[in-house]
Amino acid sequence: MFCALCAGRLSAMTFNKMALALSGAVAATVALTPTPSVAAAPAVPAFVFADCPAIPDGVDRAKWRCEEMHASGSIRIGTVELPVTLKTTHAEGRRPGETKTEFIFGALRSDPVPLPGVLPSSLTLEYAGHIDFLAGPPLAEVLHLKYRLTNRLVGDACYLGTDEDPIKVVGAIVGDRVPLPEDPSILTFAVEDNAFAVPASRGCGRLGHLVDRRFGLPSTGSLRLTVYFSIKTYDNI
Fold first, then answer.
1. In this predicted structure, what is the pLDDT of residue 41?
2. Please, what's the b/e burial string for 172-185 (b: 16 or more CB within 10 A of its CB; e: otherwise)?
3. Relative to the CA of 148, which of 22, 63, 134, 165 has its CA 20 to 30 Å away?
4. What is the pLDDT of residue 150?
């Protein structure tokens, strides 16, 4: 976090100026244009399986899968709607003698979303410690997320959601799952979650109340994504 904020050595006048600047930067996120209801379908992404995590020793590699998911669409965080793109990679399989499927996280990659305003700001989507495509309702994907808000006033430790109190997305698959004639095989489908909780901000210091006020936090959120999904077994990686 910005050291002057942490140490509390700013004058009242300087702090007020900074607070007003952050307020303007965060308020500008509300003005972002929502994703149109009718949009061109995204291009089919390239699947490279570069982030597949290591799997346990002694397992049958032909029975363990690396799963790569590309998704794009929109997400609402409190009162703010944002575009979102992400790629997740994880492994799943069973150890010898086990009946429960094990999930091993590989990576979540998502570009920062710039937020126009008084100060250069961005929101970056990050993994918050849990992924499971079996524990939720049928045809649903459970993924814990957090957003990191970055600008020169709040530093790089200001979060909406944390590992301890994440944004818990349960993305239900809606409509058909459509196979594409690609190699490796790809499925595309839509995912929605219209009622996840978004906690108050954490790590934003003395400006946290401004972040919460402008995003309307704590609150709820929603997302709508177009997903492309593919797998490879570990004996083919």
1. 59
2. ebeeeeeeeeeeee
3. 134
4. 92
pLDDT greater than 70 at residue 37 = no
Closest CA to 129 of 169, 85, 78: 169
- Decide if 183 contacts 197 (C-beta within 8 A): no
Structure tokens at 189: 């489908």
Report angle CA 27, 31, 34 to the nearest 5 degrees: 135
Strand 167-180 relative to strand 140-151, pairing: antiparallel
For residue 184, give every residue at least 6 positions away whose Cβ sits within 8 Å of its Cβ, in sequence order, or none.
47, 230, 231, 232
**Tokens matching residue 36:** 């149109």
Which pair of structure tokens corresponds to residue 134?
């079996």
Domain range list for the chain: 3-236
Read off the pLDDT of residues 131-142 as tens digits, 9 standing for 90 and up: 887 766 666 789
> How many residues are recorded in the chain?
237
Mean pLDDT across 194-201: 96
The CA angle 83-108-229, to the nearest 5 degrees, is 80
Cβ pair 228, 188 in contact under 8 A: yes
Strand partners of residue 233: 65
How is residue 96 annotated by DSSP? T
